[in-house]
Structure formats: C-alpha cells, structure tokens
Write a structure and sequence with these properties.
Elements lengths: L1 H4 L2 E10 L3 H17 L3 E6 L12 H4 L6 E10 L2 H12 L2 H13 L7 E6 L4
Antiparallel strand pairs: 1-3, 1-4, 2-3
Length: about 120
C-alpha cells in the first residue's frame, strides 16, 4: 500500500475569507486537474472541526484564523523526492498553472501566506 500512496508529501495550509469560498473551490478543482495530468495525487480539504481534545491545539488557532476565515489544506503526494522535483518543474513552466497560482494567492486572507511543508516517509 505504501507504494500506491507515495513516499513524498507536500502540503499547504492557508486561510481564505469565507466570501472567497466558491472561487477557491473552483481554483482548487482546476489545480487538481493540472497536478493529476502531471502524475501527482492532489487534493484540497477544508477544515470542518475546530474542537480539539485536551492537550491539542486547533489548526485554526495555529494559523490565526478568525471567524471570517476558512482554513484549507492542500495535499500533494509523489512517488519520491525526484518525482516531486520533476512534477513541480513541469508545473512551474505551465502558463495555466502559473495563472492559477496567481489567482490562488489573491484569494488568501489579507496579510497571510500559505504554510508549505514537505515530508518524506522514513525508510522502514
């Protein structure tokens, strides 16, 4: 199953004003097509529960979301680091993808920027 999922994950965590909900959904649907066309699993998720168990912190608090914000997470899954480099390189030279990225950045909550993280599965 691990080979089916991939060993390299890249994620983005960001805030979007609620008024931009429909537009960000459209934007992410189009991004999904771009990434999948280039051989990458891509999916966007909207935070739907801010309640946490004792000892945990809500993601909405971590990104300083307010009541007018939605918190989103985008997940990219690659076979390995080399595959990620290849796909990202292709996407960075795709005019359509660059246009989507510019639109995406304009939809974020004012004064915020996405959090980017890359994770590798440890060799077991």
């Amino acid at each position: 199953m691990e080979n089916e999922i991939g060993n390299q994950v890249r994620l983005y965590l960001y805030r979007v004003p609620k008024k931009n909900h429909d537009t960000i959904v459209e934007n992410q649907e189009r991004f999904t097509e771009v990434f999948r066309k280039n051989g990458c699993y891509y999916r966007s998720y909207q935070l739907d529960n801010t309640k946490t168990s004792e000892g945990f912190t809500s993601m909405s608090n971590t990104v300083s979301a307010n009541q007018d914000d939605e918190v989103w997470l985008d997940l990219e899954v690659y076979k390995d680091r080399q595959h990620m480099k290849e796909v990202v390189s292709k996407i960075e030279s795709d005019e359509n993808a660059l246009s989507l990225m510019k639109q995406y950045l304009k939809l974020l909550s004012p004064g915020s920027s996405p959090i980017l993280a890359e994770f590798s599965s440890p060799a077991v």
